[in-house]
Structure formats: C-alpha cells, structure tokens
C-alpha cells in the first residue's frame, strides 16, 4: 500500500480513524436494531446444537473409562491378535467405545427401572397419607398452642395453606409426570419425542467424539497454531489442558461421591426402618452433587417429610444424616476429590452463590471448577505483572502494617 505524504500523514490517519469509528457505529446500530432477529437465530442455533451439547457431556464423562479400557482390556488383546499397529489401535478404540457405551446405557436403564418405580410408590404413599399427616399436624398445633388461641389459629391457617398447595402439587404435577416417566421407561408410550431424539443423537455424537477424539484434538491444535502466534497457542493449550484436568477430576469426583452418599443413606435408613427410604436416598444423593449447599438442600425437605410421618424417626434421621455428612465431608469427599480446585471455603461459597444466581442449578454444579480456573488465571497474571515490576509475589509480604509491627516487636524481644 502506498504510504501517505508525510505532510498529510496526520490527516490521513485521522480520516482512517474516523472511518473505522463510523463503520463500527453503523455495525452496532445494525445489531441493536435487529437484536430480536439475532436472538431468534441464536435460539434456533442453540436448539439445533442440543444433541451436540449432550454428546460432549457424555463423551467427557465416559472418555476416562474408554482410555482405561484401551489400556488394560482391549489394547493388550488386540495387539496380540493383530500385527498391524494402526489397525490394532482402531479396533481397540472401536471395541472400547462400544463396550463402555453399552455398559453405561445398561447401568443407567437398570438404575432407572429399579429406582423410579420405588420413588413413584413413595410419592403415592405420601399423597395417600397426606390427610392423616395433616390432621396429626393440626392436633399437634392445638396441643402446642393450647394457651394461645391466636397463635393456634395462625398455625392452623398456615398448615392448611401448606397442605393444600402440597397436595395440589403432588396430585396435579408430580404424580402425573412420574407416571408418564414410568410408562415411557417400560416402553408403553413414547413421550417427549424431541428430548428422546436429542439424547439418541447425543449418544451417536458422543460415540464419534470418543472414537476420534485424538484426531479432533489434533485438528483443533493445528487450527490454533495456524491462527495465533506460537507463544499464544502454547499458553492456550496449557490453560485448556489444566482446565480439562480440573473439570474431569471434579465432575467425576462429585458424581462418585453423590452415588456413595445416596447408597449409604439407603443402607442406614433401611436398617433404621424409616419411611420413604428410596425417595429420601435419591433426594440426598442427587442434591449432594451441589457443592456446599447440597447436603442442606437435600436434608431439610427429607427431614421434614420423615418428621411429618414419624417425629421420633425424623429426629433419628437428622442425627444419622449429620453423622453421615460429617463422614462424607471429612473422609469420603477428601479421598475422592482431594484438593482438585485449590480454593478456600469462602471462594467456594462465593462462586456457588454467584454462578447459581446467574445460571441456576447447572451454574451451582459447575461453579467451583470454573471459578477455580478463573482464580488461577488471575493469580498467575498478577504474579507475572509483579515480577516484571520487581515486586514481591508472596501474599504474606502484603499483609497489613499492624502484623508487620508485631513481627518486629517479637524479633526485638528475641
């Protein structure tokens, strides 16, 4: 491109800058004027991509098992039977993906067929017993507030309101949908065809991803190096690798931990002879996936349910679940997860509140690993900047002045 005359260089750059500013303003104006249409297009694209999202999640969860199957089961066998290295690897991967996918589907379907009917039976039992529980609650309120008629009247009014809403929710929302789920699982009727098709396509996508994941990663890496400088590409790959490690360890860990807690809850409740054993065990296990708040979210409604049915066993359940959560928090969870995130308790609480308010339940589940990576990036960035300025990197060097004075006093006494 021909360089401008030095005499007019300043005006030339000013003109280019003005042109770019006007062009950017026009583009922004176009975007804002058609924001609704752009949103509709993005919504359609997002809906079309749902099977891909499902496939990515399935592949992410099953890939470690596929790798172990390659390494310890089919790999050694196929390398003995097939002499050509590439063919042996292809056959090994195909057999591993097929075996792991079939095994996962069988386990999930088997668990649903065992758990869902029992949960539905517990919900029906709860619905049928609601009138009895309601009258017992009114009698309890009358005895408790015998000397305070106004308080007894308020308690009865509140109990009636809760009973009406809970009964309506159980009989009009929960049970009809649970019955539909049961009939769908037993193959009597195909419900939610769109969801089923998304899941089926997602499983197919996950099979392709797991079968050729090394090739996909190589292609993405090639494109990254083609677009960005090598230094930037190395940094991006390092961050992505670390992110994958943190997410894989955390997500698989909380799923295993939730399953263990649910099974232990079922065993303890069965031994204690408590009502709604399967329903409560499922609630405790599923809510335990949510870090920090999960145990409380699951325990409060479960304890309330058992207290209404049998107050003494409700109190016993609260004691047992506190003991179980202490065992999980101090023994099981640290053994499975370890210090995979490196976050202090405050930051865990902060991340769950922030991401939960922004993205709901999925945000609460993914909050800790996502925030752990953000925390690490900010920490490394600040440390690099401090090193360039010749300043201390250790946080203890930036503590408040009173603490430094105390250190100096101690040193003088010594």
SSE map:
Blueprint: H1 9-33, H2 35-48, H3 50-81, H4 85-144, H5 149-185, H6 193-211, H7 213-227, H8 230-272, H9 277-287, H10 294-309, H11 311-337, H12 345-388, H13 401-413
Report what the structure shows.
The protein contains 13 helices and no strands. Helix 4 (85-144) runs antiparallel to helix 5, helix 9 (277-287) runs antiparallel to helix 10 (294-309) and helix 10 runs antiparallel to helix 11. It has helices at residues 9-33, 35-48, 50-81, 85-144, 149-185, 193-211, 213-227, 230-272, 277-287, 294-309, 311-337, 345-388, 401-413. 86% of the residues lie in helices and 0% in strands. It is globular. It is mainly α and 414 residues long.
List keywords for this structure.
single chain, 414 residues, mainly alpha, 13 helices, 86% helix
Class of secondary structure makeup? mainly alpha
Backbone CA Rg: 30 Å
* Helicity, as a percent range: over 70%
Specify the overall morphology.
globular
For the termini, the CA-CA separation is 73 Å
Oligomerization state: single chain
Report mean pLDDT, rounded to a whole number. 78
SSE arrangement, N to C: HHHHHHHHHHHHH
Largest sheet: none
Poorly predicted sequence stretches spanning 5 or more consecutive residues: 187-192
Number of strands: 0
Q: Count of helices?
A: 13
| Strand composition percent | under 5%
